[in-house]
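JOB MANIFEST
job_type = single_chain_structure
chain_count = 1
residues = 399
[input]
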Amino acid sequence: MTNPQAGIGGVDSHKDTIHVAVITAIGQPVTDREFPTTEGGYRRAVAWLIEHGPLQAVGIEGTSSYGIGITTAVTAAGIRVVEVNRTRPAERRRQGKTDQLDAYRAARSVLTGEASTDPKSASIEPLRALTVARRSAVKAQQAAWRQIGALLVNAPARLRDRYRDLSEAKLVASLTNTRPEQQANPDLADTMHALRALARRHRALGQEITDLEARMAARATSTNPALLAMKGVGPVIGAQLLITAGDNPDRLRSSASFAALCGTAPIPVSSGRTDRHRLSRGGDRQANAALHHIVKVRMSYDPATRAYRDAHLAKGWTTKAVFRALKRAVAREVFQALAGHCAVPDYSDLRPARRAKNLTLTAAAHHLGVWPARVGELELGRRPNNELATRYRAWLNAA
């Protein structure tokens, strides 16, 4: 049980330094000190905090950025860490801002209960690193593709006509294998050389993206297999939702708080006889985009989602309103998976059952109306689909 007489620590984190402060149980400042953001600096900061203990908790700004090192060190010392938001502009204007003031504010925000959120787990950082690397690779690949199109627009008509009707994959493959040195015209040779360089860059980035997504899929699946088993959730979307949740279900108090975190909780704007809600424009916009993508996928492949859309459009709802309602429903479903309240589907029985009856993947795929590769992925658990698995098991039992 926490000692009510124990003090509280506060940390203002920066790239090169952290400022640490301690206050009493009634909010009176005790002392403060600055430390470097090195391994030795973190050890000295924790030892200094313990010297002024016992402590109820330590409030730290930026637990997932500049403060991640001191957060790890304080947690390892057995002291509770509370995530603290940055100082609000209005408070800075009223009281000023220094590292010392921010450290004391962090401690007092824990004392008053304004800050009460547990920090994100450090185990999510490798997944964040993979996501950042993939995002930059995708942007670079898109830039290379746009540059290929721009160069072809300004290329000679004969060269432009040669590649006019090719798809993206065929155009990149064709440009990758060109031989500019065989061109007699030096101007055309230089243009072809630039196009080949961009095409090879596009292809290399595509391979890089594939490799990153494979690692993301493996880590996200091992972290939360129930989340990756949801319809419309792939490795990229699953990784983003895990990053938003912080790989720590204790941070998510309810599905409503998670919806607010993702910007899908409607905000009431009722007055008098008017009773309505407006769209929330806050929260994590990357998580909001992930939920939007899930809804779009389900609109295309999930009959229940399409039936919901059609029923509400018939009632006079707009498409935007339907999307908002579906995103809120998906947020509830995602919360259940993140909180560990969903069963993980098990498909390990499918392949032995098929082989026991000497059935081929092609025969199973023909009956189910899908490609053989899709059946193989289902058997290996790489693309979960409970509906398809149910039909598959029924066919295997009857075969």
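[summary]
The chain has 18 helices and seven strands.
The first strand starts at residue 7 and ends at 13.
exit_status = 0
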